[in-house]
Amino acid sequence: MAARGRRADGRPGGHRLSWQPRPRGLPGMSVTQDAAPRPEAETEGPGDGPVRVLTFGCRLNTYESAAMRDLAIQAGHRDTILVNTCAVTAEAERQARQAIRRTVRENPGARILVTGCAAQIAPEKWASLPGVARVIGNAEKLKPEAWALEAPPAPRGKLVTDIMVATETAAHLVTDFAGRARAFVQVQQGCDHRCTFCVIPYGRGPSRSVPVGAIVEQVRALVESGYREVVLTGVDITSYGPDLPGQPTLGQMVRRLFALVPDLPRLRLSSLDPVEIDADLWRLIEGEPRLMPHLHLSLQHGADLILRRMKRRHSRADAVTCAARARALRPGIAFGADLIAGFPTETEDHFRQMLDLVAEAGLTFLHVFPYSERPGTPAARMPQLPVPLRRERAARLRAAGTEATAGFYNARLEHALRGQEENVLLEAPDRGHTEHFAPLRLAGAALPGAHGRIIRARVRDAGPDGLLAEAA
């Protein structure tokens, strides 16, 4: 593994390139795995509360939305709607603009505030939308003063500064995630890498890490508030630590977290770069049962030439080796992966290599994106594939992912037939997710008041969209 250190030299790198849409599931079941990735907003906070938040994008946005909602309420905001945007694709931006226009029509008296990566990158565009009262930059959005009712004057409604000069990220104590069963904790912010397709570093700034003590305090408070599962999130969490005293790695931080919060039952990690998993994290994957047997890998493609043109840090062989090592250490572990179909210059052979990677690496849950050119990125200047071809290849890749997911669910059913039960975090009285992040619905009577509890369940059936079980 390469020596760790801050990377501002433009070397290839990774970040989380996904959001959490709501695809189809078992009847009456909401699933969080991607079937057709699209930037669908989630509403944070009660529909009739003083502050509502429309969140587009990644898990880090989910955490930040909860923090901003708290800051706005504490500042005294009423009848306010916050739109937290995403810049990963043009479609993400289009849907956010559409949501703003719809919000203006349906809430003519509400004050609409816009923030997030898309707003940070092009604040003038968002400030010019009818009905938008203010645009708040990513460097400002978690500062209490940005939410003051009498906020400092902002030119043309924009409170946005240069994110590229940010040097630290503040931890915010968030203990209410608007009815969610799992909580999110930011451990890292920004990205020092320059993937050729990506604008996120210009929306998030350089990589900054949250001190271990602040992370421990946040997680301890969440456990004391009743959360049974926590997700550590960031833009590029395997770059955690080199800017902190002692330069702790991600694995060292997680190890300390488990030691200092022994009552934490379940921990998940957001997207990991396959070549940046450190030795401590590998040991935790092998021997720490509270670290869930589900890893999400930032892969993006399966052909070496395309990976080089993307300026990724890993090769196809690295991805396969990472999955094989994890599976050897933790038999039965499940893998999610981000994959882009139709990247510039991608041939049918390149695409076939990505299709083959799904089976070769044993990928289970795919987050598939048709390539979307982002203005100003090197990939946008490369020879482009026709949009219909990108969509057709994305559909074929999703079909391969659906087949892989169904195979994994059938394997869990086989385990159940041998007497193995599942531990399920209930997110509603009759549904939740297993340790492997497989969606599960309870047959028969629901369990009222069980939201957020971990129960044992016996799987009785499996379909392409999840598991059907009964409480043990």
UniProtKB/TrEMBL annotation:
Q: Where is the signal peptide?
A: none
- Fetch the PROSITE patterns from UniProt: MTTASE_N (PS51449), MTTASE_RADICAL (PS01278), RADICAL_SAM (PS51918)
Region feature (Disordered): 1-50
Q: Which UniProt keywords apply?
A: 4Fe-4S, Iron, Iron-sulfur, Metal-binding, S-adenosyl-L-methionine, Transferase
Necessary cofactors: [4Fe-4S] cluster
Chain ranges of the Radical SAM core domain? 177-409
> Which SUPFAM superfamilies does this UniProt record tie to the protein?
Radical SAM enzymes
Q: Which GO terms describe its molecular function?
A: 4 iron, 4 sulfur cluster binding; metal ion binding; tRNA (N(6)-L-threonylcarbamoyladenosine(37)-C(2))-methylthiotransferase activity
State a single Pfam family of this protein: Radical_SAM
Bias regions of kind Basic and acidic residues — which residues? 1-12
Chain ranges of the MTTase N-terminal domain: 49-152
Name it: tRNA (N(6)-L-threonylcarbamoyladenosine(37)-C(2))-methylthiotransferase MtaB
Query: Could you tell me which species this protein originates from?
Result: Teichococcus coralli
Q: Which gene encodes it?
A: mtaB
